[in-house]
Here is the input.
Amino acid sequence: RSRNSSDFQIFVYEGILENYIQQRVADINDQKRISSALSLHNLNQCNQIAYIDNAKGIFRIKNDLLSVIKNIDSTRLRELGQPDLDVIYSQIRIFYDYFNQHEENYSHYHSEFMEHIDALMDTMQDVFSKIEHNVRALDGNAKRLSEIVDSHDFEKHTPTEQVEKAIKEIAYIYQRNILPTLAFLNEEAMAKDSSAIYLIRKIREKLNHSTFYEEARTISIIEMRLLSFTEVITDIRRKLHRYIDMNQKQRALYNRVEQYYNQLNSLVIELLDSKLTGKLLSPQHEFFQPAKIFNQLTSWSRTNLT
Here is the structure.
């Protein structure tokens, strides 16, 4: 029902699976094999189902498998919002504080320190994966929304419901996903320790001055790749902001037209008599003063165009 939905209806899944097998798989043995392999019972037995609720008729696929499925189509990916980025920042902050406070333990023979190093490397790989996923989601959805808005001729038609929804989603993604992601990747943040990239760089610098060269090199690669996403996100921000700006101007135009219409309507109503046929509003009326600029336009009598 939506890109953020994780629950699936059992009857829908089984119906789609059966329909696919009947239409796409000719061999009867293959039909049986695929039906058996992708049945909810077998997926559950293979530990690919997070939970299944037969009473409600819903089930949820495990996140790892769901991510693989979603990655096939970037427009189905969920963008990271501020809460997601806050969680990632908190994880990095914990490591930053630990490596700051335990500089005397920088040793390959210190078991607790090595546990933190292993956890740090796993976390860094996970952070990169999530941010890369986020960039792909933002790029995919920016393209999808751009196609909807660009296909509409604003000069000839008022925005359709689909276009209005697309513009609202653009505004939402811009505020709730793009700007927080840029702030997350900004290494020159006003308060430096509020930037995740700043913390990552400081951890890497500390490891550079120790014997953990391999770990420092890996973090350096991840750091550079994360920073490269800044350019991609900035480009997406620039493209989407164009639609937000266009929508604001379009809305201002509509409001202006409505304002003048209501003003003109009130002036005309005041002139109406009991037969509702009153006098014409004088061309010299102050209401028309802003339009005087058009008086200098040239007329072509042959074509009747002005």
